[in-house]
Amino acid sequence: RGMMQRLLLSDGDWLALMQRRPPAASPAPRTDDFLLTRVLCRQLRPLDMRLADHIIAAGAHRFSFRAAGLL
Q1: Fewer CB in a 10 Å sphere around the end CB: N or C, the chain?
Q2: 57 CB-contact burial (10 Å; exposed 0-12 / middle 13-18 / buried 19+)
Q3: 15 close to 52: Cβ distance less than 8 angstroms
Q4: pTM for the full model?
Q5: Count of beta carbons in the 10 Å neighbourhood of residue 47
Q6: Quick one: CA torsion of 26, 3, 12, 42, rounded to 10 degrees?
């Protein structure tokens, strides 16, 4: 969370995506999540914007594409 806040505050050309799942579900990314992230990154590039993070939340559990080194 701290890294994402620093990115968003330092430069307004960042976008963050928060995806919620039911509390009992796994926050692990699915094939569609990887595809969504890749497409969104490509679509933002011509607008000079970048994806700060794609976070999947399921109850108290989280998966961060940035923390996993995928962004």
Answers
A1: N
A2: middle
A3: yes
A4: 0.77
A5: 9
A6: -50
DSSP of 13-46, one letter per residue? -EEEEEEEE-TTS--SPPHHHHHHHHHHHHHHGG
Cα distance between residue 37 and residue 21, in whole Å: 16
Place of tokens 């970048």: 50
Distance CA(61)–CA(50), nearest Å, equals: 25
CA 63, CA 1: separation in Å to the nearest integer?
A: 12
- A 10 A CB-CB count for 54 gives 24
Interval 20-49: pLDDT, tens: 999 999 999 999 999 999 999 998 888 888
